[in-house]
Specification:
single chain; Alpha-Beta Plaits; Arc Repressor Mutant, subunit A; eight-stranded antiparallel beta barrel; two-stranded antiparallel ribbon; globular
């Protein structure tokens, strides 16, 4: 298959299967999809190249008793690339993008402590040259995102296939989950490769196979650890990415959020602090499709008082950072 070629139904099934369970063995996926193990492995390798597919382990900050923050920074045009790159290299950021006009950088930050949050928001960013404004928005309630990604809405799998591939349900949270140093070392490996083998996890962490298995099961069953599929959105026909900052009447906050979560265009929606109290990320085939979505879907939502639309020009970081490749001079 040539680079840039459209994905076929089996590719889409594989992507959705991995979104359901990022560590599902190829043998189980193959059995459910009715193909050989070798076919699934070959398709996976092809998607790694063509779609820059990566399966990454992600921690649910809510399960750890931590908050996530979305930070908007406006800066002079000559500073945006450098600022975005610096934020992307930080281990406490999970998403960084350059937005409309090339003068806005947005990042999702997951500080491990109040001190780490304050150091970045009130000290470092405020003193960064050519940053003209900083606004920080705490994520109050996610409506869609996290373990639920856009691929869950792909409908590539049949209901029976989806049921066969879905992992056991996560236990109901009874309070924050505490992590020890061995948990953290395991999570550090999975953040870079969610499909790292047991042998690779043993070697990297110095833990026994039985301990790795027990800790993996605990982290997953408590919902602390889930797996996300990172890939090029363009191969799924998503040429236009937008961030919608919605100002919603408080009485309509929950209803608007739940409706957004059902929209096939929405990979992420959450209630946040600030005048614009819902943020939704959306994906579209064209600018015309974005216009239709705004006018027909968003415009029809009762309680929406205003919406600010910012186009995403480029993702600099999505879960993990890879330096942008540039041509040799």
């Amino acid at each position: 298959m040539e680079p840039g070629a459209a994905l076929d139904p089996l590719d889409l099934k594989l992507l959705q299967a991995l979104q359901l369970d990022g560590r599902a063995p190829f043998s189980r996926i193959a059995q459910v999809l009715g193909v050989s193990d070798q076919t699934v492995a070959r398709r996976y390798r092809g998607l790694r190249t063509r779609a820059r597919l990566r399966v990454l382990g992600v921690t649910d900050e809510n399960r750890l008793g931590r908050s996530s923050w979305i930070v908007r920074l406006r800066c002079t045009p000559d500073a945006a690339e450098q600022l975005a790159g610096a934020l992307a290299r930080r281990p406490d950021t999970s998403y960084v993008s350059l937005n409309s006009g090339g003068t806005e950088v947005m990042c999702t930050m997951k500080p491990r402590s109040r001190e780490a949050r304050d150091e970045l928001l009130f000290d470092r960013l405020q003193r960064t040259p050519r940053v003209t404004s900083v606004s920080a928005h705490c994520v109050l309630h996610p409506f869609y995102g996290g373990a639920l990604g856009l691929l869950n809405k792909a409908d590539a799998l049949s209901p029976d296939e989806e049921a066969a591939l879905r992992p056991p349900p996560v236990a109901t949270a009874t309070g924050p989950v505490a992590l020890d140093a061995d948990d953290e070392s395991l999570l550090d490996v999975l953040r870079h490769d969610g499909r790292a083998t047991l042998t690779e996890l043993q070697t990297a962490t110095g833990q026994s196979e039985s301990m790795v298995k027990r800790r993996l099961e605990r982290l997953r069953s408590t919902g602390v650890l889930y797996f996300d599929v990172q890939h090029d959105a363009e191969l799924l026909g998503h040429e236009v990415e937008a961030l919608l900052w919605l100002t919603v009447a408080p009485a309509s906050l929950a209803s608007v959020g739940h409706i957004l979560a059902e929209h096939p265009q929405v990979p992420f929606a959450a209630a946040v602090t600030g005048q614009a109290n819902i943020l939704a990320a959306t994906l579209h085939r064209s600018a015309g499709d974005l216009y239709t979505y705004l006018s027909e879907k968003i415009g029809a939502l009762e309680g929406v008082q205003s919406v600010e639309t910012a186009l995403t020009l480029r993702r600099v970081k999505q879960l993990s950072y890879e330096p942008r490749r540039t041509a040799a001079p």
